[in-house]
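Researcher: Structure for this, please.
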Amino acid sequence: MAGEGAVGLVRELHRAGGGRLPPFRAEGLRQALEEMRALYDSNQADVSEAKSGRTDLVFLIRFRHCCLLRNQRCILAYLYDRLLRIRALRWEYGSVLPNTIQFHMSTEEVEWFNRYKKSLATYMRSVGGEEGLDLTQDMKPPKSLYIEVRCLRDYGEFEIDDGTTVLLKKNSQHFLPRWKCEQLIRQGVLEHILS
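Model: Predicted structure, token format:
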């Protein structure tokens, strides 16, 4: 049936839900584009005949044109929704995405993520004075300035603003400034211990 491939792409994203990024379906996208090319070529041939007097083809031409527009909308919705999810991942995980997520991205999406990351970093450096302003910190209003964290894997030395160096080893617990830990919590290095 016309347009099923393109609709399948959108359905797959909808099923993933929850901001998850399913694998990029290059083959499904290619098939939808090939279907569009075939519909367009058929319409071109029938339009020439319709101009010469065959009015019975008008409805078929309109149907194919509607199928083309539907496929176009589905493909654009698929690509746009993926970009929105990738943008949200930048705010959730920071500037370095886990390999499991990058594996699900196309080359073009990785390039787009890198450009978005650089653009966001440039903007954050331009506001907030000399040091800039990190907009990715404190995504939720903090209840306290310091939090207790547990290290989930060996990370090495971690320097705090006052010059103190903390050695982050697996299963060690620390009482650190919230704003210095949030990025490491999102990356899975630290875990916030809730009392």
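Researcher: Any notable elements?
Model: The chain has a mean pLDDT of 88. The longest strand covers residues 146-151.
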